Amino acid sequence: MRIVITGATGYVASILIPELIRHNHKLLLVSRNTKDLKYKYPHLQICEYAKLAHYGKNFDIFINLAVINN
Q: Global pTM?
């Protein structure tokens, strides 16, 4: 399955992403801080929010884990 995950640098995503990888899902990770994601998951597709509409086409599921930090 093709899955988009926003808020991909957060705690919940850090648990979810390895599990989805283990089950061979194709992932698009979206975050404000793509540098950290590229370091942690160099083999996955990564983009910033401004490019989500372009790269997120044709994905099956959208999981929003993004939050506003206070």
A: 0.92
